[in-house]
């Protein structure tokens, strides 16, 4: 019998029991939501079009039919209002998951996120935790023009009181939600729009992942490539291209942008002695700038070359496809920066 929260997957062509499954990033997120809703009656999902439409990017498709309108709530087009409602529900003992369709719309809820969600635990002397999860789509590369192509996770990583996650793999997409819901602080999850249709293998024994450590996605000895979110596939592609030329690149996926795991980055730099930071944010005031500063503070004498940064061009993201691609970090840019670092 199949009920709410049951993960189905049998039938012809299904992998044998115990074998890894191939799932898309979108499906992994949906499975995480389904599991959370089934496991805890306090959990509910709210946001624009999350119910009947199935979410602006199809992540919540089918969940309204499984869990009903009390648990999967369509909201009015007012980010400030429904984010504030999520904060109030969290203060009242619920475990809300708020979906903001795209990161630029979160600017309309910035007062609620910065002045309320991020501060209440501190200002109440620990009496008022806000166990709220906010999911939003970030990033460019899909011809959505300047207003819907921002990578603003850099901004939110600046704010004390928030935990900021950037899942870049199907495993992180599937298993970061449970520990996020258990966190007493508000957690922001940034899902890069270019990843939704990508796929990967999900091990049957995979479980909740730690939210405090970066991950070395590929080991190397000559140069470290540090990135997160939608730039991870580009960094891995660049590492493959560099390997053809005999350059061994280590790829570090930050995963959690606040608090930042600079220890893993520094350990990698100590092995390779060269580093390229790949960040879809604009170069000025970017997360890459913060990581570069920490490397300078903690590992300056490990460096055999200046820190390289590959960031988006400092322009509003263009609509035209060829201009958009030119404005964004690409694997070829990462390869060129790595070659400069290696010399």
Helix content: 25-40%
Order of helices and strands: EHEHEHEHHEHEHHEEEEHEEHEHEHH
Strands, count: 14
Q: In one word, what is the shape? A: globular
Average of the residue pLDDT scores: 94
Strand order of the largest sheet: 3-2-4-5-7-6-12
In short:
The protein has 343 residues and is an alpha/beta fold. The chain is 34% helix and 20% strand. Mean pLDDT is 94; it is low at 1-13.
Structure description:
- The chain has 343 residues and is an alpha/beta fold.
- The chain has helices at residues 25-39, 63-67, 79-91, 110-117, 120-123, 153-156, 170-175, 177-182, 232-244, 262-272, 287-299, 321-327, 331-342; strands spanning 21-24, 43-47, 72-74, 95-102, 133-138, 163-165, 187-192, 199-202, 215-218, 223-227, 249-253, 256-258, 275-282, 308-312.
- The strands form three sheets. It has a seven-stranded mixed β-sheet with strand order 3-2-4-5-7-6-12, sandwiched between helices.
- Helix 9 packs across helix 13 (331-342) and helix 10 packs across helix 11.
- The longest helix has 15 residues, at 25-39.
- The chain has 13 helices and 14 strands.
- The model is unreliable at 1-13 (pLDDT under 50).
- The N and C termini lie far apart (62 Å).
């Amino acid at each position: 019998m199949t009920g709410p929260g049951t993960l189905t997957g049998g039938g012809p062509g299904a992998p044998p029991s115990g074998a890894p499954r191939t799932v898309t990033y979108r499906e992994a997120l949906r499975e995480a939501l389904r599991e959370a809703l089934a496991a805890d009656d306090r959990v509910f999902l709210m946001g624009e079009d999350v119910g009947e439409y199935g979410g602006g990017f199809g992540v919540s498709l089918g969940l309204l039919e499984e869990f009903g309108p009390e648990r999967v709530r369509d909201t009015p087009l007012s980010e400030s209002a429904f984010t504030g409602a999520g904060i109030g529900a969290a203060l009242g003992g619920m475990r809300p998951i708020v979906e903001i369709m795209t990161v630029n719309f979160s600017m309309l809820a910035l007062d609620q996120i910065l002045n309320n969600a991020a501060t209440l635990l501190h200002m109440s002397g620990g009496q008022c935790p806000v166990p709220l999860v906010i999911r939003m789509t970030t990033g460019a590369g899909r011809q959505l023009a300047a207003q819907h192509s921002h990578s603003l996770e850099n901004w939110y990583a600046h704010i004390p009181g928030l935990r900021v996650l950037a899942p870049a793999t199907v495993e992180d997409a599937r298993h970061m939600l449970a520990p996020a819901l258990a966190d007493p602080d508000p957690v922001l999850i940034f899902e890069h729009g270019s990843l939704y249709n990508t796929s990967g293998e999900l091990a049957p024994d995979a479980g909740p992942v730690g939210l405090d450590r970066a991950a070395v996605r590929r080991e190397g000895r000559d140069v470290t490539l540090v990135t997160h979110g939608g730039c991870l596939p580009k960094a891995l592609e660049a590492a493959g291209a560099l390997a053809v030329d005999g350059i061994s690149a280590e790829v570090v996926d930050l995963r959690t942008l606040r608090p930042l795991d600079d220890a893993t980055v520094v350990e990698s730099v100590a092995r390779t002695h060269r580093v390229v930071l790949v960040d879809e944010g604009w170069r000025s005031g970017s997360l890459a700038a913060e990581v570069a500063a920490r490397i300078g503070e903690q590992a300056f004498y490990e460096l055999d070359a200046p820190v390289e940064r590959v960031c988006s061009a400092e322009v509003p993201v263009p609509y035209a496809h060829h201009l958009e691609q030119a404005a964004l970090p690409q694997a070829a840019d990462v390869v060129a920066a790595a070659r400069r670092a290696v010399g």
